[in-house]
Amino acid sequence: MGSIEQTAELLLCLSPAEVANLKEGINFVRNKSTGKDYILYKSKSLLRACKNMCKHQGGLFIKDIEDLDGRSVRCTKHNWKLDVSTMKYINPPGSFCQDELVVEESKENELLLLELNPPNPWDSEPRSPEDLAFGEVQVDKNLRFMILMDGIHPEMDTCIIVEYKGHKILNTVDCTRPNGGRLPMKVDLMMSDFAGGASGFPMTFSGGKFTEEWKAQFIKTERKKLLNYKARLVKDLQPRIYCPFAGYFVESHPSDKYIKETNIKNDPDELNNLIKKNSDVLTWTPRPGATLDLGRMLKDPTDSKGIIEPPEGTKIYKDSWDFGPYLKILNAAVGDEIFRHSSWIKEYFTWAGFKDYNLVVRMIETDEDFSPFPGGYDYLVDFLDLSFPKERPSREHPFEEIRSRVDVIRHVVKNGLLWDDLYIGFQTRLQRDPDIYHHLFWNHFQIKLPLTPPDWKSFLMYCG
């Protein structure tokens, strides 16, 4: 292995006069030479600092006008809130910590903000690039790969670096903030998503601010932010070739017509054009039948045979889909014997194992149009003590209402599946009061459910 060591990068240097002007509480400061922004928190016994960048999607923090103690800042993108006195996010509650900078004082009484950078694992054992032949990739000593966690959802999302004969390919698809923002520069090919909108937010939400007008404006603004974020990332990393390829999905079932009409997608060509305005990076979006000869394009980006486009008029989406096999599986759960006994509710949520959290959820089984399903279940779950009250408790508590299509929720319950099948796929309609994302709740049901499904066989024997 090559010799690689941790480095300390100086991000900001405040003069003694600037240090004297720091006030108690939150200070927003900028490095005028780089244009980068930082936050300093000062108290009598404490001095902390971080980048002015939300770890969710890199949004800028501003003063939180709802904070009377002068300790929190609010992200301008999605209203995430950070307590800079502790460097913990308070919205979403119980979620993440901000990456903290090192604060040191120089001999000249200057204040230094330093970022400690561990060695990049992709820089170890470097290999010299070799010529590539079209279609030659083999699983041998020339091929190696590295999986990097996402900085926001490390349990769920990853990105990957694949190297073959010294040529690196970086794939960041579906990562919110891949590897916490630390990624290799000048890779031969970078691949990513471009569309957004698969999570169901905010189209599946209603109540409070979630009016049709608000949702339409949010989607328009959010899609633009995503394009700018991707373009900035490409500009910073400077790959030889950039390929936005993930985002070709469509809400094809007739029951999802509303989502299809409102969930506007980004156009990869729009992203490519934005990148071309700000850098010299070559962009390519694959379509059915298209090919990229990476070896040719790396040798000569102007080679007309390096990219073969599909015939004119080639369709991206099919004209029709056969939903039958999928719906048959889902519908099989609706009439399952499990659901003849209302005690399945306690059995299921006890198995799920989430409790000791102040949140009350109302679960409603619905038809395809999210109206209550005739004979379906409508119940409350109080996750503070994992009880199932008939009415909401009198104590102060956050509340969520989750309407789920009966075939999907029963399929998920019966098979002990993760709730991605509900949340991603537009199978629910949600309301929440107050409007807070309960990270611990959703994180548990999305990734932390038991590996084996509920023992419904024993349950039915007991019920019988």
From TrEMBL:
Coiled-coil ranges per UniProt: none
A Pfam short name: Rieske
Keywords annotated in UniProt: 2Fe-2S, Electron transport, Iron, Iron-sulfur, Metal-binding, Oxidoreductase, Transport
Listed InterPro entries: CMP-Neu5Ac_hydroxylase_Rieske (IPR037339), Cnh (IPR027033), Rieske_2Fe-2S (IPR017941), Rieske_2Fe-2S_sf (IPR036922)
GO molecular function: 2 iron, 2 sulfur cluster binding; CMP-N-acetylneuraminate monooxygenase activity; metal ion binding
Gene3D superfamilies (UniProt xref): Rieske [2Fe-2S] iron-sulphur domain
One GO BP annotation of this record: N-acetylneuraminate metabolic process
GO annotation, cellular component aspect: cytoplasm
Start and end residues of each Rieske domain: 14-112
Protein name: Rieske domain-containing protein
Natural source organism: Bos taurus (Bovine)
